[in-house]
Each structure stands twice: as structure tokens, then as C-alpha cells.
Design brief:
Elements (H helix, E strand, L loop, with lengths): L13 H4 L4 H32 L1 H11 L2 H28 L6 H25 L1
Length: about 130
């Protein structure tokens, strides 16, 4: 039978005392970077479509993508690619049934964060 007093129940206490852990933040960043990469891909596709449409429209799109804002978006996208790639490798490692101990999961989260910044820097220097 349905509980008629559902609205009168107090909220769970975890809402007020929960402290985000780095491993959970790392998982959330994986989802955020995946969605951000979709937006960056749309920007690049727009640039290609503008190149196919004509020189005037391409000048507008090229002006946007080569501006300071476009450079910032592309640099952020580069970091997101490396972060998302390393997080995917972590998930492949988890699929083997390993890496679930708290210390190892925390080490993997830190490794992804540090590795993504290092790989982004190396990519920028080499390109």
C-alpha cells in the first residue's frame, strides 16, 4: 500500500554531512569532459561546414576559432581529450576487477588528473 505521509519525512542526513571525495569528483569530471568534447566537436564541424559554404562565412568561423576564445576552447578540449582518454583506461582497468581498493582508486584518480595536465603540456610543446 502507498505511504500517504511521504511528504512529511525528513531528508536523509547524508545531504548535509556528505563531503565529496576526489574519486567521485574524478568520475564526475569524466562525464563533464565527455559532454564538453561533444560541444567542441560541434564547433569544429561548424568550422568545416563554413569552409565548404564559402570564403565569407569561413572568415567568420575562422575568426571565432582562431580568437582568444577559440584558442581557450581548443586548449580546454585538448585537456579534456587526455583526461577522458586516461579515465577510459582506468575503466578498462576496473573491468578486469582490479583497482577498487580505496587507496588504489584514489591513486588512479590523482594519476588521471596529473597525467592529463602533463600530456596536455607535452602535446602543446610538441605541436
Amino acid at each position: 500500500m502507498a505511504d500517504v505521509n511521504r511528504g512529511n519525512r525528513p531528508l536523509s542526513p547524508h545531504i548535509s554531512i556528505y563531503r565529496p571525495q576526489f574519486t567521485s569528483v574524478s568520475s564526475i569530471f569524466t562525464r563533464i569532459t565527455g559532454n564538453a568534447l561533444i560541444l567542441a566537436a560541434i564547433l569544429v564541424v561548424w568550422w568545416f561546414l563554413a569552409a565548404a559554404y564559402g570564403p565569407e562565412y569561413f572568415a567568420v568561423a575562422d575568426g571565432v576559432i582562431t580568437s582568444w576564445f577559440g584558442d581557450l576552447v581548443m586548449f580546454g578540449s585538448l585537456w579534456a581529450v587526455w583526461y577522458h582518454f586516461l579515465a577510459g583506461l582506468r575503466h578498462l582497468y576496473w573491468d578486469t576487477g582490479r583497482g577498487f581498493e580505496l587507496d588504489e582508486a584514489k591513486m588512479l584518480a590523482y594519476g588521471i588528473m596529473i597525467g592529463s595536465f602533463v600530456l596536455t603540456g607535452v602535446t602543446v610543446i610538441l605541436i
